[in-house]
Amino acid sequence: MTRLISALALTLICGTTFAALPVVPAKDQAALLKSSDAKLAANKKIAYDFFRVVLRGLHLDQADKYMKDDYIQHNPNADTGLKGFKEYFTKLGKPQAIPETLPGAIVRARVR
């Protein structure tokens, strides 16, 4: 019984000690795209713009700027390839205004 009580006490103490920190969106998204490496900065900007323009804005006519025909789709509901991507995302609605920034979605942008 003492072991059980000790284990429960340890669990309660460690649970609060090792609890996850809250995810906080970056205040300055543009700062996340900067890098002393010009190629890295360009790649970050391309990924960011793809998300803003194509995924959030649904401007599928611009998907060709960011994707190749052999794009591998990871969503099981959409076919692989640029054509499959466009067909799937066309069902989500008409193009919308392209947001200047992503609404609270970016926490950080880094390369491993």
How would you describe this structure to a colleague?
The protein is built from four helices and no strands. The chain has 112 residues and is an all-alpha fold. The protein is elongated. The termini are far apart.
Which residues sit in consecutive blocks of at least 5 with pLDDT less than 50?
none
Helix content: 40-55%
Structural class: mainly alpha
Percentage of residues in DSSP E strands: under 5%
Counted by DSSP, the helix tally is 4
| Computed CA radius of gyration, to the nearest angstrom | 21 Å
Task: Using the alpha-carbon principal axes, give the shape.
Answer: elongated
List keywords for this structure.
mainly alpha, 0% strand
Quick gist of this model?
By secondary structure, the protein is mostly helical. Helix content is 43%, strand content 0%. The longest helix is centred in the middle third of the chain and has 19 residues, at 38-56.
Write the layout of secondary structure elements.
Blueprint: H1 2-17, H2 29-32, H3 38-56, H4 82-90
